[in-house]
Amino acid sequence: MLLTLLAIAAVAVVRLRDLFAVVMLAGIYSLITAAIFVVLDAADVAFTEAAVGAGIATVLMLATLALTGRWEAKPRHRPLLPLIVVTITGAALIWGTTDMPHFADPAAPIHQHVAPRYIEEGPKEVGVPNMVTAILASYRGYDTLGEVIVIFTAGVGVLSLLGLRRRRSSAADASPSTPPTTSEEPPR
Amino acid sequence: MAALGLYNYWIVIFLMMAGFYVVIAQGNLVKKIVGINVLQTSVFLLYISMGKVQGGTAPIVVAGATSYSNPLPHVLILTAIVVGIATTALGLALAIRIKEAYGTVEEDEIHAQDESL
Question: Which has fewest Cβ within 10 Å: A68, A77, A183, B67?
Answer without folding.
Answer: A77
